[in-house]
Design goal:
By secondary structure, this protein is of the alpha/beta class. The chain contains seven helices and 15 strands. It folds into two domains: 123 residues, Rossmann fold (3-Layer(aba) Sandwich); 86 residues, LytTr DNA-binding domain (OB fold (Dihydrolipoamide Acetyltransferase, E2P), Beta Barrel), CATH 2.40.50.1020. β1, α1 and β2 form a beta-alpha-beta unit. α2 packs across α3.
Length: 243
């Protein structure tokens, strides 16, 4: 199966060099290229690639800025002159980093890793009908200088903070500029449940359920958070959970 890819790099010579190296990997089909962030975002929105090769340092906006502008992040292999230690500071769990000049063996390893990940994902999704944003999708979260790729399955809770939402995963709680209503519209409602005005919970992260006052429920998530399900939402919750 061909993997559709876009190269985003402000240096034409770097794009050409990468295309030449990728000729040895016929599974990777370069469908387009872009020389800056705005052009890259536009082409990703149109073509929906499986993968982007992304430079970090570009004039005007960085590769991290580009990821912050996407609603849904494709798989990313960074191609950069940054060294490994500088990259670690960003805390971004990308598929891989290729340091320029790109070593053909490192490129082959990155593509092997990509193919393994795609096979695993296809196996786990076999027969599952996909909604707009599923558990297997990953999103890019940027809070100040810190950045993460997060699979939706790893997010246990969204909490409203004005026009922002706090995202709970691992030990992190970054803020994103999205309202809870906007998130609710985009998330798979078979997994992400609007518990009350302030919270959306991932049903797969529930550890305990207890009766609560006024006919509501109190759920405890595996991260330790206790969230009230409002009386109104309790009816819907019981139907979904087959109480």
């Amino acid at each position: 199966m061909a993997i559709k890819a876009i190269i985003i790099d402000d240096e034409r010579l770097a794009r050409n060099e990468l295309k030449k190296l990728l000729e040895l990997h016929p599974d990777i089909q370069i469908i387009d290229e872009a020389s800056n962030v705005d052009e890259g975002v536009e082409k990703i929105d149109i073509a929906h690639p499986d993968l982007i090769f992304l430079d970090i340092q570009m004039p005007g906006k960085t590769g991290f800025d580009l990821l912050g502008e996407l609603e849904k992040a494709p798989r990313v292999i960074f191609t950069t002159a940054y060294d490994e230690f500088a990259l670690k500071a960003f805390e971004v769990n990308a598929l891989d980093y290729l340091l320029k000049p790109i070593d053909p063996k490192r490129l082959a390893d990155a593509i092997q890793k990509l193919q393994s990940e795609i096979q695993l994902e296809q196996a786990s999704l076999l027969g599952v009908s996909r909604g707009p944003l599923t558990e297997a999708d990953q999103v890019f979260v940027k809070d100040g200088e810190r950045c993460w790729f997060v699979k939706l399955a790893e997010i246990r809770l969204f909490e409203s903070v004005g026009n922002y939402a706090k995202v709970f995963f691992d030990g992190h709680k970054p803020l994103i500029l999205k309202s809870l209503n906007a998130l609710e519209d985009r998330l798979d409602d078979r997994v992400f449940f609007r518990a009350n005005r302030k919270h959306i919970i991932n049903l797969h992260w529930i550890e305990k359920i207890e009766p609560y006052f006024n006919g509501g429920l109190l759920v405890e998530l595996k991260g330790g958070e206790k969230i009230e399900i409002s009386r109104r939402q309790t009816v819907k919750f019981k139907e979904m959970m087959s109480f």
